[in-house]
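Task card 7
Instruction: Convert sequence to structure tokens.
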Amino acid sequence: MRPSLMPLAVALAAAIGPTPTVDAEMRPVRVAAVLPLEGRAALLLLEAPDSGVVLPLVIGLSEAGAIQEGRAGIVPPRPLTHDLLAKTVAALGAKVDRVDIDAFADSVFHAKVRLSQSGKVITVDARPSDSVALAVRTGAQIFAASRVLADQGVSRADLDRLRRDPHELERRLRGGPEGTRL
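Output:
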């Protein structure tokens, strides 16, 4: 990089903020449940089958509905947003290979959608809720970084205890509309 551009690069990096920590070791997860919460949110539970660790994410109601409809195989008469995206990817000759929930930074989960097209791999940054809604429509596998599961996941027993006490669950949930930790 030319020396005259160095201050600009440093300023841009500072403006963008910290880079989320990314763990290269990914573990498969599955959608265990989508539960309504009070207000305009739902709780997406992703479970690592090998360990039983559950990754809870607070998501919007429309994304929750899209995930549920995709899991149930419901095909709307006209394509909704995630259906449109899945059809667009296919129409461009690409395939959704997998979704990686790869980081948790500043109280927000981060995800990547990995596509393949003619032998080329394309990775797109996305919200986990949109990524999962796309994955359930396309049959793509969902993965979570081991570090994210270790830091943000809860045991099935702890989750069951919290689900029996909605006030404790609500108290433990904090953050924005997506990316909340229990």
